[in-house]
Every structure is written in structure tokens, then in C-alpha cells.
Model the fold of this input.
Amino acid sequence: MKGYRKYFLNKVLWLLVTFVFAIVLNFILPRLMPGDPVAAITAKLAQGATNTTGMQKVYQQYAELFGTNKPMLEQFILYIKNIAHGSFGFSFSQYPRPVVDILKSSIMWTVCLQFPAIIVGWLIGNTLGALAAYLKKGFDKVLMPVSIFLSNLPTFGMAIFLLVIFGIGLKWFPTSGGYGFDLIPNFSLKFIWSVIVHYQLPFWSIVLIAIGGQAIGMRSMAIYELNADYVKYSRFMGIKDRKIIGYVFRNAMLPQVTGLALSIGTMVGGALVAEIIFSYPGLGFTLLNGVMGQDYPLISAATLIITLMVLSANFIIEILYGIIDPRIKAAQAD
Amino acid sequence: MKRITILLSVLVAFSMLLSACGTAATATKAPATAAPVEAPTVACVPSAAPVAAVDSAIAAAVKTLPRNETLYFNGQQWGSVVGWNPFSTSMNNAMAIAQQDSARVIMFETPYLYDMLDGKQYPLLADGPWSWNSAMTEITFKLKAAAKWSDGTPVTADDVAYTWASNIKYETNAGVNNKDYIDTIEAKDAHTVVVKAKLDAAGKMINPLVVAAYLSGNYVMQKAWIQKLEARACGDATAFKADTAEDVVYSGSYHKFFTDDTKAIYVRDDNYWGQDASMFGKLPAPKYLAHAIFKDNAAGTTALQAGEVDVSQQFNSNVQDLWLVNNLPISTYLPDAPYGIGASLPTAFYNQSSYGLDQLAIRKAIAIAVDYPTIIANAMTNQSATFAQVPRSLMNPTPGEQALYDTNAVKDLQWVGNDIAGAKALLDAAGIKDTNGDGNREFNGKELSYIATCPNGWSDWQAAIEVVASAGKAIGINITTSFPEWSVYQTVVTNWPLPATGYDILMMWSDGAGPTQPWGRIRHLISSEFAKTTGNWNGNWGGYVNPAADALIQAIPTETDPAKLKADYTELVKIYLTDIPSFTLMYRPQSFHTVNESVWTNFPHAGDGTSPAVPPLDLTDGWSIAGLYNLTLVTP
Amino acid sequence: MKHTIRQVFHSGKFLVGFSIFTALLLIVFVYPLIIKNAPLAIIGRGTFFPPGTYVNSYDTIGSTQYTLMLDDAAAKRIASKLGDQERLGLKAWLVADGIPENQIDISDTVKLLDLWVNHYDPNKELAGMTYAKLQYYQRLDASLEGLLSIKGVSIAVKNAQTGALEETQFVQQSDYVNISQVANVRVLPLGTDNFGRDVLTELVKATGVSLEIGLVAGIIATLIGLTLGLLAGYVGGLMDDIIMFITNLFTVIPGFVLLILISFSIGQDKRGAVTIAVVIGLTSWVWTARAVRAQVVSLRNRDHVNLSKLSGHSVVHIILADILPYIASYVVMAMILQISSGILAEAGLSILGLGPRTTDVPTLGLMMNWAMIYQAQILGKWWAYIPVLITIALITFSMNLMNTGLDQVFNPALRED
Done:
């Protein structure tokens, strides 16, 4: 247990240090972008104004409000203070809407789209890959090329194909929106069904590509394991195939689990393409608009959330790894 | 172990820093967070607008919008609705708030409605036409007795006066734009409004056109509600304009029903005063106006094709394919090209301080070499009149403006474009030749090289700029394109001096149709009032100065003799087409207007027999709102 | 070495991938030599011309006219204007107008048109007819004019002096021209895009540029990843921790967001193709570094390495001579994957509007971007975006096949029995 404690402590420390640096980076990066967002907001307010002599005053007002006329360090301290109070400030591009409000409404959609898609893609992909490694011959020969092809289609390609074929062509699924164009959110069966139906195309556009990638990875890992010495030895010893397979896949699964952690961590920003093509509500598009509108608070907040999720997911996986993989305990012991 | 100690110490140091700031924070709130905020120096505390709980319950109870009671829109609202405050320009509430020449009046109303098809103003809240006094210094108009607010109280002249006073006091756009032209607005009695114009030293009105335009371009708000808002904002202008105004009192026919990230829905007020015989005599046909929020044009067009959108304000490229090829019941105002009524003139401005662009020969050569038919066919997919159909000038293609100048007098100056040979001859005659054989001409020894630019993402403009650049190549001037992001573009272009490189030929908009046009457009294009200024959202971004033009622009608003007016306008067109400080690239409709007749029919179209003619402004702007009353169902 | 190469080329998968890739490269290099048209030249006035052969109408009139007497010519001519749908449309109007249904036979063209001409009133608004439908019938009526006539058409030119039209030629309905004799014929196998550019020529050039971007991005990413991975894996200790820390930072900040931020910051005017490639390379080296490090760590304690250490060779020498050759195969595979992901990253950026400048060079992502802005996928203009998608898929597919083939050669366990 001693070796394990050392491992655990090491991981926690690096987690905290990375987190600190990540916060600083998340703050600095958007503000490195050229252009002055307050000027952009002022200009937007001035649109349609034929007399802009008052604009300088407005500019000052907003610079004061958003604190962009203060030195960077002061802004950073302000930023940290606000986060500690749970407020991310006001969005520049959607003023006077607070950032928390914007994130709250879009994050649910993104998480609900991405999380099941990643898990389902992971499960199906790994199962298929493992089967291919185990069954070999016919199944493998078909699965390999198909998986390679699917995993290499760009996301937007898959999304457009699905849209054109199933949405516009066959009209089996709706082409845009999170729920029916004539529905108002409520808890009726009709609404829930509409959400599910609108969910299909974006969901499958992510899953199909994920399946391809996972299948290939799992297949390689599984083949490595299946050819390992202990497998051959166990076979000679007469141990049942089913029992051996249990061990094989448990070993092969480890790198895949790391990949899963990473995917879950980055899922918050990942559905951008699907959101644009299917007009699906979510955080990706909000983030893109934030970047285009130089909306520092929004960008910093969104990237902070992504950072937190990746770090936590990584951390949990590494701890789990330590528990599952005895080699780590052993390595720490010496 | 050493490593761990280092890490621990870093962490401890950082947390100490944090806690130090933390203790300081509890004393004063960060000034970066604005209203609602606790500003200890002001006696009253600005608060946020209350959200009516009843509304959300009603909305949730409806569950599904009946298709044959709802009119669906696209192309106006591209993000979530932020608020309902007409005093602010950042509310992002496209369907309800748009104070412009043809103001959007579904929720908030103006005294008059502008009809861009005949150039007249028709009364809405007002009763009968407005009139000048004999000295031509004041406008008087009456308000309809039937006009009422949503809370039942009548609309009075006091409301009009107080709205103007608030616009001035809190420096809203409406106030800032008009304060140089309107002196005061007073209530002579409960239903009579007097608008006093600002006078110049000679006692004449400075600009009667702008004063008249105010009557159809700016909302009237209820005095009692404004006072409530003022109290809430504690008199602070920023808080006043940032208030989300969920409890706003309106006089229009529609109001908020439900908004979220995916749609904005407005519901008809069945007690709307406009059903009185003195106005429309009935209620508008659709019970709900709904607008789904699409991420881009393509998604909106898909919905239009599927019949999920009835009225589309998007630029649908090749819109005619929707009915010619796909056989859908979709149509535009005109059945053939240009499909809509051109109203504004997107223009390419020459940066007068760029090397060589002060030479008329170079400006003219580039301008006449551009392939305008290709711009109109490719960039606008024929949704614009060609320059052969409507020869270039400073006026838009509407018959009203075209009649204001003498086309024959300037016929020779109105080039059609694509004149590569003529452009080359011009340059050769001016001695601007290619001396070193690299394919590019030099002027006084220095090679001519320009960057043509427009904001990134405005696809039809980008396509047009590409055509301009290829014209340059054809005549031996090196023109390349650049598409900065809109937020960068706007901050650069609206401030003089322009950067040394990157902004030689820049594309910007011009005014559309309105009561002050074409004067307003001409002023914004070539008046030296705006040349070489900062914070300039008005025009003349190239820095062109011409005192003769200025004098004419100054004189026109107070000119009453039609013959003299025509002569003045013709002279301005002549100056513009001779000096070429900028050139029009295409004609653009005021709004795009495409309709799908799968559920509703009897939309406005050319020759539909309505009188006054209902303009194709998506049934929401100016006189176009009358279109909502004419709609019928395809299958009743 | 030679033996390895022979094995590589025997692998089925590698061969297939390699041939697809080389075919693409050949096309990219050879096509511009044969067809010398500028890829970005705007040749069409109008958007999205469908694929096909475009014959100059003016030259057709001036070419030699041959008379061919073909039986079905008249029927084909009529069918092109009056298909089944149009006939049903005519019938629907006539029925709504009050003509009894049994009097209308849609297969009898002459009688149908006769009824139509006698009863159609363009301004009559039948019950329940939308404005769009009204316009439809007006267009249909206009297109049917003179459908049954067997006369030819006159070509007339305005007299320069009098301004009156004078007939110069008469074209019969049985006149044909031989395409090879027409002066101006242009084949556009993939039609034109929204700018009016020839899609095929543009596509070939765009493939070249995208491959170049992918190559630059891939090489940069691999070099960075390789160097960092080698240092981290071999030297270990503090250097390992620091490099892993930097790698973690890059992982934690989403790569694509970083890419968007940097691309936006550079600004449109500086976004050349190579600049974008460098930016992509600088943000995607992470997993290469990790993978290389893992390999090097397992190699670190091998006998030959220990031997070199004992012999007193410098660190650099050990890394180059003893470690690098063993991971060479892995690095080659990593580079192939980096190249293909670089191409995809550029396409992704361009779709968002953050890719290279439009007028300089076309790239695959930019072609997709413009096709989507002008709504090609909605309007059914498949030639503007499907060939681009297929090309992207082919490039990445072929590279991955090559990769899998190489994998099988270097890891015999993965070979199929």
C-alpha cells in the first residue's frame, strides 16, 4: 500500500499544478487575440447611429465595466475572485446576458449529445474490434477496411452525408433543431419523442466515426495480447478459452480506457461540427461565436470547464489504472 | 521527495495569494460586474427586471403551436433573445426591436409607417397625416383615440414627449442621432403632438427630412413604464439601457410568448387596439409568430424547403431553383430576376490616401473594368437589377428615387462595366504603363498594388470582391483580396487614418429606402462631414472631400422647388460619376423576402392590388405589417 | 533494409493504399501539364453549372448543318417540355376550371393542348390556388408555346443602318451539327462552383495544396513529437516530468479550440497555406510525443544500449545510433497518421472560415466551405461538394491503409494467417 500512496500523491500534486497553470493559460490565451472587444461592442452599439460623438464616452463606460482598461494582473485577480463566487461575469457578445446563463442553457445539450455518443461508440467499437481479433478470417477481413474508412471520414463529411441522405433525401429524420419546430418544451411524451428523433442524426454522425476508431485500436491491442506467452501457455495447460479471453480483454482494455477518459474530457467542446450542420443547440457553436466576437469571459469560462473535465477524467482514470494494473504498484514499490 | 517539496511550496504560495485577495474581496464587490450591482456610493440600488411567472406557465401549457395559426420566420434572429428594451441596441431581439426607416412594429409601434414602394408615410398611432406649421418650423400631428397600451391605458401625447425626453436624457441611439435636428417634442393636449425642429441662425429648419423620418422610425413608449424603468435603474444611463425589460408595456399586436436557445415565439394580443375601425378593422391573421434559431443559412433554407418556414429573410442563393427545379410553392415578390426590390447600394470605397488612388485615371480604370454582370449573376445569383437595366447613379432602383434625377444628362457617365479595353486605354493615356515587363503597371516608378477587402463571412460581398480583384489582374494592376473578421474590420474601417496596407478598396453598405432618401444616402457616401473622422459609422470611409458636393448636400433638405431639386440631384450624380470616389457593386433589397405557400397564402407580391401597396419587407417592417392582415390559409 | 522494403511491398493492404495515394499524386502533378487552365479563373457567369459538355450555341449556328431524319425526334422534343407531371398539372387546371374529367385524355397531346389553349386564362384565380401555383401555370403556358409546330426558326441580325431585323439563316427542326466541328466546346466533368470556377481543375489544384499543407503539418508535428519523446523517454528524470507536464497542458486545453484561437489571432491577411500548416503542426504533436516516449522507455534498458553507455558514447550518439533505428518504423507510421490528420484539421478550420485566404489557392476545406455557404447540399448541387468529400476520404483512407500495411510488416503478430 505504501507504493500506492506515493503514486496517488504524485498524481494529485501534478493534477493541482497542471490545474493552476491551466487556469492561467485559459485566462491569458483569449486575451492574446488581437482586436479590442470593447471597441467591437461599442461599434455594435453605434450601428445605426449617425452622430457618433458620444461613442468615446460609451467606450469608456464599457471599458470600465468590463475592466479591460486595467492591467492584466489586476484583471486576472478579478477573474479569480469572481470564479470563487461562482460568477463568470457578463458575456461581451451577448451583453447583458451573464456567462453562466449562456453556459447553463447550452451545456446540457452538448453533454447529452456527446456523452452517450462517446460511450456507445466506445462500447460497440471495442466489442467489434475484440470480436475481429478473436474470430479472425471472414469477419476480420470485412471489419478492418470498413473501420478504417469510417474512422477516417471527416466529421463534417459524415454529418453532411447523413443529412443529405436521411434528412433531405429519404426524409426519415428531421434536418435541424433540438426538438420539433412547433413544440414548446414540456414533459409530455410527444416532446420527449421529438427530442429523441431530432437526436438521431447528430448522434450517429459522432458514433459511426468513433466506432471505426475504437475498433481498429481494440483489434490491435487484442491481437497483441492474444499472441502473448501467457495465453499460449494457458492454452497448453488446458484452461478454458472463455477464461483466457477474460484476462486477455482485461489487459487489452487498459489503453482504450485512457482514450475514453480523454474523449469524455474533451467532449464539451467537441460537437461543434454536428451542431453547425444540424443546427443543434450546444456549447460548441456558442464557443465559436465567442471566439469570433472576442468574448473573453465566455471563452475563458468554456475552456475552464473543458479543462476541469479533462483533468478530472484523467485523474480518475489514472487512479483506476493504479488499482487495476498491478504493474504500477510494483513499479512504485522498487 | 525533493520534487514533492518544491511542488508543495508552489501550491502553498499560490493559495496564500488567493486567500489574500479573497479577504480583500469581501470588503468591496468587483466593479467589473455591473447592474445588478451594489455600488455603495449611490443611495438606490439598481435591480433587474422581474420576469412574469404567468407567461411561462401559459407557454408551457400550449405544448404545440398549431400549424395553421402560426407564421414561421427565418433570417432575422440568429442567437438567443437577450432582452426586450427598445432603448438599447444590444437586445438582439430582431423580431420585436428594429428602429429604422421601415421600423419593425409587431410589438412596439411608431406614429407613422413608411411604405418604401411609394415613399409615403401612413398613420399608425397617429390620426391622419402630419402637417407643417406656416413658418415650417414645427410638425403637428394627432394621435388616434383608439390607440391603447397593453395594460389598457390610452396612448397619449405625453407618452410621445416623454419618450423623446428619455432618448435625449439617456443618450440612446434615437436621441443621439436626432438631437441635432429635433429640438423638443411637446404634448399640446392629450392627443396632439408638436415636434419642434432645431433652427439654424437664419431661423430656418436645419433638416426637415430627418424630423419627418423620426415619426416613422422611432417607437413610442409608455411614460409610466419608462418612469418605472428609471426608478429601477436609479437614473443611471448604462443600467437603463442594460435592463432586460421583461415587464415592458407595448402597444403592438404581438408580444412575448416563449423564448429559449432554439426559438423565439410571439403571441397575438386579442385586445390589440388596431382592430378598431380607425386602423385595420380586424386582428392580424396568424395567432403566433415564431422564429427558430438556425446556426447558418443552409439550415434555414432546408427548413424553408420543408415547409417549416413561411417567411424567409435570408439570402437564399439561386432561390429560383426552389420553384423552377424543385417545384415547391415558394415565391418572391417579383416572379423573375431580380426577384426583389433593390433598395441599397453596397459600395466599394477607394481609400483616397492610398498610393495612386488619388489619380482619377486609376480609379476610373478599375471601376469600369470590373465585371458587374458576373457579380450580379454569381455573387447575388441574379437577385439584383443589372446596371444595364438600372444605370448607375446615387439612387436605388425604386421608381420614386429614379425619377428624382435626369438620366439623359448623365448617360455618358454611366458605365456598364467589363470594359477592359477602355480601362487599358485610359491608363495608357495617363502614362501609367508597365515599364519593367512584370505584368503590373507602375505609376511614377512605383508598382501599383492594392488590397480589396470586405468582412469575412459575408459571402455575397466576398464573391463580389473576388470579381473586383480579377478585374485588376486583367488591366495590369495587382489587386489581391483580404477578408478580416468583422470585429476587426469594423474597428479599422470606422477610424481614420486607415492602415497603410490592407484597406485600399473597401466594401461597405449604403442606406436603403427611407423618408430621407436619396439625400441621406448621398450624404453618407460623399459628404466631407464624415471624411477622415474617427468613430465614423456614417459613411465616406475613403476620405473624399468635395466642397461643391457639400454645398448641394447642405441645400437639398430645405429645397422645396421640385425642378431645382432635380437639378441638384442630377448635379450630385454627375459629380459622383466623374470623380468616382467609390463605385456601386450591386443593388441589394431592403430585406430579402421569400415565402412558402404551403400553409398560408395571399402574401404581398407584385401586382397584388393592395392599395397602398404592401412592400416585401417580411410582413413586419413599416407598411409591410398590413400584409399580416391579408393572409389567408390555403386550406381553411 | 532491402528485405523490409520487399516485405512492405508484398503486403496487400499497403499496396492498395500506396497505389491509391500514388494515383492521386500522379493526377495532381500530371493534370496541370495537360490542362493548362488557371484553377481559380472564373469562367461561368452564374453559379453551379451542372457537369456536362458545353457547346457554344453561336458556333453551332455557324457550323455545317447536317439533316438527319430521326423518327423519335419530335416525340423527344415534346416529352422534354411536356412530361407526365406537366400533363397532370394541365389536367388539374382544366378540371378546376370546370371541364369534365372524362373529356381530358392526358396521353393525347394534340387534344390536350387544344383544350388548354382554348381554356387557359393566365389571370384567372381558381379556388384554393396559391400565388406560386398561378406563376407555375404561367411559366408552363409560356414553355408550351409552339410545341407542336413543325416549322424551324429564323436567325436574324439587326441591320447596322436601318436597325431592322434581317434573316441570315433558317434552322430546320431536322438540322444537326457534328460536335467535333464546332469551334468552342468545353467539357466540364464536374461543372462549376459558386464562383463560376471549373470544379475539376480547382479540385486537382486543391488536392495538391491540401497534401502540401498536410505534409508540412505532419513533418513539423512528427519532428517536435519525436524530439520531445526521445528526450523524455531516454533522459528521463526531471526532463521527462517537464515534458510530460507540457504535454498534459496541451491535452488539457482542447486542441481544436487552441487552433481556432491561434488561427483567428493570425488574422486573415497573414493566413497563407504554409502558415496554417505550421500552426496545425504546432498544436498536434502531443500523441506522437507520448507514443515515442513509451517506445523509448521500453528500449532504454536493452542490452545494446547499455553496451553503448558502457563504451562511453555520448547521449546524442546513443539516441541516434541505438534508439532511433528501432523506432524508425513507428515514426514513419506516426508521420503518415499526422499527415492525414493535418489534412483533416485544415479542412475543419476552413469550414469554420478560419482557413487560408480564398484568392490565393484553393484547398479542399475551402471548396467545402464555399459550397456550404452557397447551400449546395440543399439545392442538390452534388458536384460542388461530393467529389471534395470523396477526395478527402480517399487521401486519408489510402494513408491509413498504408499505415496498417506497415504495421503488419513491422509487427508480424498482426499479420493475417
